[in-house]
Amino acid sequence: MSIELTHEPSVIEGRPALKTIDASIIKPMNNLPDKRFWAAMGLTLTMLGIGALALGMSFYRGLGLWGVNNPVGWGFAIINFVFWVGIGHAGTLISAILFLFRQKWRTGIARFAEGMTIFAVMTAGIFPLIHVGRPWLAGYLFPYPNQHSLWVNFTSPLLWDVFAVSTYFTVSFVFWYIGLIPDFATMRDRLANSTMVEKVKKTVYSVLSLGWRFSNRHWSHYEMMYLVLAGFATPLVLSVHTIVSFDFAVSIMPGWHTTIFPPYFVAGAVFSGFAMVQNALIIIRKVYDLEYIITLDTLEKMNKIIILTGLMVGYAYGMEFFIAWYSGHEVESFAFVNRAFGPYAWAYWIMVSCNVIAPQFFWIKKLRTNIPFMFIIAVLVNVGMWFERFVITVTSLSRDYLPSSWAYYVPTIYDIGILIGSFGWFFTLLLIFTRTMPVVSIAEVKAVVDGSQPTHHGLEHHSEEGH
Amino acid sequence: MENNKILHSMSAIFTSPDDIMKAAKEIVKAGYTKFDIHTPYPVHGMDGAMKLKRSPLGYFAFALGAVGAMLALLLMWSTMVESYPNNIGGKPLFPLPAFIPVTFEVTVLLASVATVVSMIVIFFRFPNNSHPLHDTPYMKKVSSDKYGAVIESDDPNFDFDNVKEFFTGLGAETVEPIYFDNDELNVKHNIFEPKFITGLTIIAITVSALTYFTLNKLIFMEPFNWMMTQQKLSAQSPSNFFKDGFSMREPVSGTVAKNNMPYLYSDSVDLAEQVMVNPLDVDDKNLNVGKVKYNTYCSPCHDYNGNGQARLNGQFPNPPSLHTDKVRNWKDGRIFHIITVGQNTMPAYAQQLSDEERWQIITYIRALQRAMNATEEDMK
Questions:
Q1: What are the tens digits of pLDDT across the range A3-57?
Q2: Any bridge partners for residue A342, and if so which?
Q3: Is the pLDDT of residue B329 over 50?
Q4: Rounded mean pLDDT of A189-211?
Q5: Domain spans of chain B, in order of start
Q6: Residue B130: its chain A contacts at CB < 8 A?
Q7: What is the tens place of the pLDDT at every residue in B269-302?
Q8: Looking at beta carbons, which residues of chain A come within 8 Å of B119?
Q9: How many angstroms separate the CA of residue A365 from the nearest CA in chain B?
Q10: Cβ of B28 under 8 Å from any chain A Cβ?
Q11: Angle separating helix axes A107-130 and A413-436, nearest 10 degrees
Q12: Which residue intervals of A288-359 are DSSP H helices?
């Protein structure tokens, strides 16, 4: 009886048969997409086209088309870069950190969030490449032996970024792929070998599954590997946005040169990432009938993390002002008064209301579990987090030390086009992902369904101990 | 028909996680060693039931991570200290704190990627899509919702009927033998197979062509060459714009180079002697510079002390001594003129020596002359 009392309710609703799980997760890959999918794809491809046009013009005519100039030399490119890298952080937090904390509710959403991490980092990676104006010369970012004996500067935060983002992408990709191997094997074994399409599909899945056999001799190494990867990915994800924040914090710009930046950036990244994952999942679970796997309870838990990280971000906003006053540094104090009441006050107050005030509604359980409401709040959080990066980058630069060179930064239509294009690129990749790979980890979900684990295991332990 | 097939193993399908746990324990208890359990997801406690050792991948990761850290530090040391030391803001050449981010990232990268690759290649011996278990009804069940156990035929205790009975006794849903696929067994992979060679050739040609195109053609096309082509003429290139066909222009007549006054007396030694006076003080600095310049430019012919018996003696006519009364009585302006425009075999030194340096040499020659012709008075 005591066993019943300590029994944890399953994170998967009902008690679906294992075959049902296979079928419902694999369904989108076996059917041709419907009209809704093509409508969504049309929208994202249009956005991508707008971005490609703006970008093509930027390369052809030169980066003078963008709004950046003296003194605001960092504009939309870095804002978008920081925003998209931040979106990626939720995926790693869900797949690695929550795994280490044994949070079973992560099971249903981990795969999808990891996929979003990869696509978000792919989107973010575009911006450092394009902002140099000659992206085909990007090879110089890496330390490779060349005839000039010319090396990169390893003491520069911008170079740390190259290493951090490329490592983050690679490790996230490996983590994601390791999780996909058993699922590819399941998909391989569900296919008959009768039609041409099936043969092609089967070959693809066989290659991707590497010949996985579900052997427990393999599962044993596999689980250890998963633990090791989670252990590496956890400090890695913290390091990535820390290093991104160093781009700002290591410089001597008032408003940037603060030690609070690394934790502040990481919290903000998780905050916006969770909002984005939640937005996408709300649609996915509805469209693909996965409501019993991605449960309302899971969404509520994500909302709780949104409140937590939102409070951390709010604390950082407050602490910046406190330090500006407490330091007694004139230029520093001015930078912050200027943020809140200067020419960019509108952006600052959009940021505060979206990031600090909006998530407070989640304290009320009724609102926290209301799906349309949480969707709106999550959209607002993303808007707010984009504006946070805008405020940090632009306000400090537009009014730096020398008043005679102050200027007001206005993005051009090309900047906005590229921003729209980045959303198009991200969501296009995401849509393709939902149709080609299992958006929920089949093996992991099976392992947490009620009745999937041996029951007499605990009892046997008692008997071995001499009961 | 099945007699000519080679037996791989005997398989059994179980329907619940409890059954498979029990089966695993019984298989171990019965003394089988070459067996395996297949489940669609990791079943808790199976490692213990199968008496598997703890996976050593953690140690792999640690070792590979240490290698990564050392490689990163070595790379940064070799580039920033050894290959191309650069002073960056007065910081040390090997600033360890600034190297930590890159060291950390490379450690994580190498540790995770290399551990995954070693797991797949060394531990799993993947990719392997030709294992006899593939494409069997058994595999299709364990990859979905059933739990399976196999005992391989090369287990020392294996006996076809005994194992079949053993599995049935454990409550297996189905018990089936698994055979090697004869077609797959008889396939011999030959690297000289025409198919393979053709494939390899096509890949080689494609890669070479793409590389050639990228490195030799693409980067010289617009807009990729925009960093190289600029709207300006370079000094040595021809020009259709100017009449003389050169890009390089001559300076406007009367242009004077910086710090260089034109020499006005090149036609007249006497005028030079009358008009020009040594503007320099006789001091340490002027004498020293004069000595250095004299030793460099004058001493090959005139010798270090000015007597004309120098190391080029014989290759050129000996210059007259600088210690004759004639030379000692010349005014400084005359010597300046001779250095500037040359005399007899001696060429002009206006290109090599600035005005000031010429006067410094003259100051030094005067000192030499006095030293070589010292009077009693000088000794005091």
A1: 555 556 778 888 888 888 888 888 888 888 889 999 999 999 999 999 999 999 9
A2: none
A3: yes
A4: 89
A5: 1-187, 189-250, 269-379
A6: 211
A7: 888 888 888 888 888 999 999 999 999 999 888 8
A8: 221-222, 225
A9: 35
A10: no
A11: 140
A12: 296-326, 330-341, 345-352
Tell me the ipTM for this assembly: 0.92
Among A433-442, A444-453, B55-64, B371-380, which stretch is predicted with the lowest mean pLDDT?
Answer: B371-380
Asked if A435 contacts A291 with a C-beta cutoff of 8 angstroms, the reply is no
Would you say B350 and B262 are in contact if contact means Cβ atoms under 8 Å apart? no
Q: Which residues of A touch B21 (CB under 8 A)?
A: 454, 456-457
Instruction: Flag whether pLDDT at B354 surpasses 90.
Output: no
Residue A130 confidence (pLDDT): 92
pLDDT > 70: what percent of chain A? 96
Residues in chain B within 8 Å Cβ distance of A151: 79-80, 83-84
Are A153 and B88 an interchain contact pair (Cβ–Cβ within 8 Å)? yes
Strands B147-152 and B174-179, by their bridges, are unpaired
Structure tokens at A405: 């060179």
Report the half-sphere exposure of B123 (CA within 13 A, side-chain side).
22
Smallest CA–CA distance, residue A454 to chain B, in Å, is: 5
Alpha-carbon span A392 to A398, nearest angstrom: 11
What is the structure's pLDDT at A1?
40
Residue A8: its pLDDT value, please?
A: 65
Q: Using an 8 Å Cβ cutoff, are B172 and B13 in contact?
A: yes
How far is Cα A6 from Cα A276, in angstroms, rounded to an integer?
A: 34
pLDDT tens column, A74-103: 999 999 999 999 999 988 888 899 999 988
Closest partner CB to A163 (pick from B102, B126, B129): B102
Suggest the residue from A228, A238, A450 to mutate for an interface test with chain B (most B CBs closer than 10 A): A228
> Residues of B with CB below 8 A from A185's CB?
143
Interface of B with A in 180-209 (CB under 8 A): none
Please report, for chain A, the start and end positions of each structural domain, with discontinuous segments joined by +: 2-453
Question: Model-level pTM?
Answer: 0.81
Q: How far is the C-alpha of A389 from the C-alpha of A283, rounded, in Å?
A: 27
Q: Is A2-453 a CATH 1.20.1630.10 domain?
A: yes
Q: Which candidate from A59, A151, A212 shows the least CB-CB separation from B80? A: A151
Using CA atoms in the order B76, B59, A176, A209, what is the torsion angle rounded to 10 degrees? 120
Give the pLDDT band of residue B21 (cuts 50, 70, 90): very high
Q: Where are the beta strands (DSSP E) in B103-255?
A: 147-152, 174-179
Compute the distance between CA of residue A158 and CA of residue A156 in angstroms, rounded to an integer: 5
> Please, what is the average pLDDT of chain A?
90
Residue closest to B368 by CA, chosen among B326, B328, B317, B320 = B328
The pLDDT of residue A27: 87
- The order of strands in the sheet holding B7-14 is B35-38, B147-152, B7-14, B174-179
Coil, strand, or helix at residue B246? strand
| Chain A residue closest in CA terms to B222 | A60
The burial of B10, by beta-carbon neighbours within 10 Å (0-12 exposed, 13-18 middle, 19 or more buried), is given as buried
* Mean predicted confidence (pLDDT) in B209-227: 84
CB distance B127 to A207 below 8 Å? yes
Chain A and chain B share a number of CB contacts under 8 A equal to 208
Look at domain B269-379 and name its CATH class: mainly alpha
Cβ neighbours of residue A213 closer than 8 Å, sequence gap 6 or more: A185, B38, B131, B133, B134, B139
What's the confidence (pLDDT) of residue A67? 92
Contact A84, A164 (CB under 8 A): no
Q: How far is the C-alpha of A284 from the C-alpha of A111, rounded, in Å? A: 13
